[in-house]
From TrEMBL:
Keyword hit for Protein biosynthesis: no
Subcellular location field: Cell membrane
Domain HAMP: 317-369
Organism: Paenibacillus dendrobii
The keyword Ion transport appears for this protein: no
UniProt topology in membrane: Multi-pass membrane protein
Alphabetized UniProt keyword annotations: Cell membrane, Kinase, Membrane, Phosphoprotein, Transferase, Transmembrane, Transmembrane helix
Full protein name: HAMP domain-containing protein
Segments crossing the lipid bilayer: 18-37, 298-320
Listed SMART domains: HAMP, HATPase_c
Pfam families: dCache_1, HAMP, HATPase_c, His_kinase
InterPro entries, A to Z: Bact_2-comp_sensor_kinase, dCache_1, HAMP_dom, HATPase_C_sf, HATPase_dom, Sig_transdc_His_kin_internal
GO cellular component: plasma membrane
Single GO MF annotation: phosphorelay sensor kinase activity
Amino acid sequence: MGSLKKTWSRFNSIRNKIFFSILVFLIIPFLLTFYFMDKPLEKVIEQKIGRSAQDALYLVNFNVQLFLEEMLQSSVNITINPSITKLLKDPDAYSKYEKLRLNDTVLNRLFSSYFSNSYVTLFDREGNWISTSYMFDPLLHGYLDSKWYQDMMDKPYQLKWMFNNKELMYADRKPIITLVKTITELQTNKNTGMIVFSVREEDIRKYLTGLEGNTYLVDAGGTIVSSPDKNEIGQSLLNETYMPKVWKSDRGQQIIEKKGQKWIVNYDTVRINGWKIIQIVPYDTVFKEIFDIRKANILIFFAIFIVFSVITISIAYGISKPLKLLRKKMRELEDKEFYSNIAVTGPQEIASLIETYNKMVRKIRGLLGRVKEEYEQKEDMRFRALQAQINPHFLLNTLNNIKWMAYIRNDKDVGDMLSNLGGILEGSIGRGGSLIMLRQELDYIENYMALMKMSHPDTISLNIDVPDDLMDQEVINIMLQPIIENCLVHGLQNMTGMGLITIQAWHDEDDFVLRVADNGTGIRPEKLEEIRGRLGAGSMDPLPERIGVQNVHDRIRLQYGDAYGLSLDSEPDEGTTVEYRLPIRKVQKGIGDDTKSDAG
C-alpha cells in the first residue's frame, strides 16, 4: 500500500500529468483513428483494385474469346467449301495433284489478324486425311485410334477444344491449341468427316501479357494452355487450393495464403469453351504503394511522437522546475525567518506566481515586524495601564473619605457633588470591558447629570423613558456621555428657559434604537449636512466640533458593522435628536467585571 501511494505521488505531478495527458488525448486517439481508418480504407482500396483487375481480366478474356471464335469461324469456312465437301464424300473423285492444289488453294490460303500460322487437317470417315503440315504416324494414330475420335465421328455436330504440347503435334513440334469439329451433312444429319484446326500457343500468349503477376489460360482439365511464362505451360493447377472455387463460378476474386504469403486470385471464364483465365498476384505487390504509405505514416507518427515527447517534457520541466523551487523555498521560509526570495524565471504565469510569492514574503516579513512591534507596544501599554490603575483607585478612595467628612459636617451639597463625582470616576475605571448593560450606562449618565445640575440647578433636567425589559441591552461603554455633553454645551447652555434632555429606547424589528433629544438651540442646516456627510462617509478625520459624535459613531461601526451607528436630526431653535442603532443583544455578567453577550 505504501509503495503504491509513493508511486502515485510520483505520478501525481504537473510534468507527468502534462506528458501523459498529451499521450492520452493526442497520441492514443491518433493511433485509434489511424487503425480504424486504415483497415476500412485498405478494404475499400482492395475492392477497387479487385474491380480494376477484373476489368483488365475481362479485356484479356474478350480478346481470347475473339481469338477462339476466329478459329471456329475459319474452320467453318473450310468445311462449307463445296470442294472440301465433295472430297470428303468421294475421295477418289480427285487425283493426287488435285488434292495438292485443293490443299494449297483452300487450306493454306487462310488469313487472320489473330494468328500467324494455322495447322489444318481433314479426315474422312475411312481414315483418309489431307493436312497443311506433315503428320508423323504417332500423331495420325493418336487421332484415329483415340476413343473421343470414334465417339465424335458417330455423333453429328460435335466440337472439341484441346491443347497439344507433347504427343499430338506436327513436325515443327510447337505447342498448339486445337479445335476438333465434325463435318455434318445437313440433309442426312450424318458426319462426312472431321476437321482438326490448330494454331500455335504463342499466338494466343500475347493476349495474356501486360497483366501483373502470373496469368494462365487453363483448359477444362486444369492444365495451363498458355502463359507468359513458357516454363509453366503444360503444368496442372488441379491441386491448387483456389481451383474448386474457380470451377464453381464464372468470374470472381479470392485472397489466399500460400507458403506464408498472401495472394490475390482473379479469374474469368471463356464462354466459347469454358476454359479459365486466371491471374495470380502477390498481395504485397498490389498493395505495395499502400504499404509504403503506411510505413511512411508510421515513421512520421513516431517522428511526431518523439518531437512531441521532447517538447512536452521540456514544457513540463520548464513549468515544474520553478514550482519545485517555489515549494522548496516555501518550506524554508520558517527556518530563514521569511528572508527568502526566488529569481523570477519561467513562463509568464509561473514568473507572475514567483513574483507574487516574493511580494507575499516581503509583506509577511513586514507584517511580522509590525505585529512584533505592536505586541511590544501592547505589553508596554498594559504595564502602564496596570500601573496607572493605582492612582485612580487612590483618588477614588480619597474622594470617598472627603465625601463622608462633608456629610459628617452637614455639608450636603459638597457631599452630593463628591458622591456624583465618585460615581463617574468609579464608572470610568471600574468596568471590565467595552460592552456593558444599558442600565450601567444610564446610571453613569444620572451621576453625570446630577453633577452638572449643581452648576445649573434650575435650568436643565433629564428624563429617562426606557422600559425595564430593555435595561439588559448591550451597549458600548461611555457612548451616551459625549452626546449628553454636546447637548449641554452646544444645545442648552445659551438658551433661555428650562432645558430638557430626554432618553428613550425601543425595538425596531431586529434593531435596538436609543434616542437622545434636547430642546436646545439646534444646529444650523449647513453644519448639520457637514456632520451627516462625515458620518455617512466614515471619515477618520475628526470633526472641527462635537468630536464625541464621530467617536461614538466610529466605535459602534467598528463593534457591530457599517449598518449601525448614529443618525442626527435638528431644527434651529427647536432642538437636536440623536438616534443610536444597535443590534438587539442582551448582556450576561461574566466572571469578575467581564461581560459576555449573546444575540437577542
